[in-house]
From TrEMBL:
GO terms for biological process: DNA integration. Gene3D superfamilies: Ribonuclease H-like superfamily/Ribonuclease H. PANTHER family: TRANSPOSASE INSF FOR INSERTION SEQUENCE IS3B-RELATED, TRANSPOSASE INSO FOR INSERTION SEQUENCE ELEMENT IS911B-RELATED. Involved in the transposition of the insertion sequence. NCBIfam families: transpos_IS3 (NF033516). This is Transposase. It comes from Kitasatospora aureofaciens. InterPro entries: HTH-like_dom, Integrase_cat-core, RNaseH-like_sf, RNaseH_sf, Transpos_IS3, Transposase_IS3/IS150/IS904. GO terms for molecular function: nucleic acid binding.
């Protein structure tokens, strides 16, 4: 059609159409649709702009399921297939994960905690099950290690820390940050990790004991035994780490802070949370708890004895 527009002033539209074997009615119908698009096409154009905004707000990470969920949260009723079609036509797509690598090593002489989780990463409330792991964040300045603790209930990252060394101090500091910001009842919380030497260290096990936290361990290098922690590495590496090259460790720390505290915990919606972010999911839980009607227990009927 562009060819016709370029040459119709010189040759006229219909001679060009005859040479191209295009019916004149098809061309004029196309011109009419461009000048006066139908209501559905106008709506598609408006919807595509909304999709572009949502995709950009996510750091260009959201695919069609999350874009569709955000549209519904904003009050836009639209089918998921339509969102997929518009994203495909506009060349908009989310990011895809890769298989994560394991970086922990087992200390053969360490005393191991039992596996209290048995691959059941569910919890009835916050601060009942935390999963912990470490991973490498590459930078041009050198390796940068990240330790995280994730709450199984809301999938929130409740504590994290970075260091040049993947040692016991790294995981212990992440735990201290988690304990500083979360009310933990002694005897109610399980801390699950693999058999890495950082998690079997005296420093960490002693701190868990003092806090009344029950240690639990899966095996080393088994993504199923610590699947919830491995899942976060997949998300983090896909949406944050692999999309850029960090010149310095400071650059990596700033990016991790912006992603974990500024995006993942507060705004990134998840299907398993009913398309809420971890913070929203916990806020809803506590709001429901506050508005729940207290259960009244009737006193027992007194038994008359002679």
């Amino acid at each position: 059609m562009k060819l016709i527009d370029e040459h119709q002033d010189r040759f006229g539209a219909e001679p060009v159409l005859r040479e191209l074997h295009i019916p004149a009615s098809t061309y004029y119908r196309w011109r009419h649709d461009v000048a006066e698009p139908c209501e559905r096409k106008r709506h598609d154009a408006e919807l595509t702009e909304h999709i572009r905004r949502i995709h950009a707000d996510s750091g260009e990470t959201y695919g069609s399921p999350r874009v569709h969920a955000v549209l519904r949260r904003e009050g836009t009723r639209v089918g998921r297939k339509r969102v997929e079609r518009l994203m495909r036509q506009a060349g908009i797509q989310g990011v895809s994960p890769r298989r994560p690598r394991s970086f922990t090593r087992r200390d053969p002489a360490a005393d191991l905690a039992p596996d209290l989780v048995q691959r059941d990463f569910t919890a009835v409330a916050p601060n009942r099950l935390w999963v912990a792991d470490i991973s490498l964040i590459p930078t041009r300045e050198g390796p940068w290690w990240l330790a995280t603790i994730r709450d199984a209930f809301s999938r929130r990252i409740v504590g994290w820390h970075t260091s040049e060394r993947a040692d016991a101090d790294l995981v212990l500091t992440a735990l201290e940050y988690a304990l500083h910001g979360r009310p933990v009842e002694p005897g109610q919380l399980v801390h699950h990790s693999d058999h890495g030497c950082q998690y079997t260290s005296i420093k960490l096990t002693t701190r868990l004991l003092k806090a009344g936290i029950e240690p639990s361990m899966g095996s080393v290098g088994d993504s199923f035994d610590n699947a919830l922690a491995e899942n976060f590495w997949s998300v983090l590496k896909t949406e944050c780490v692999r999309r850029t090259t960090f010149e310095t460790r400071t650059d990596a720390d700033l990016a991790l802070f912006a992603y974990i505290d500024g995006w993942y915990n507060t705004r990134r919606i998840q299907k398993r949370l009913g398309w809420l972010s971890p913070d929203e999911y916990e806020a809803k839980f506590y709001a429901d708890q506050a508005t729940a009607e207290p259960v009244t227990v009737e006193p027992p009927t007194p038994v008359l004895t002679r």
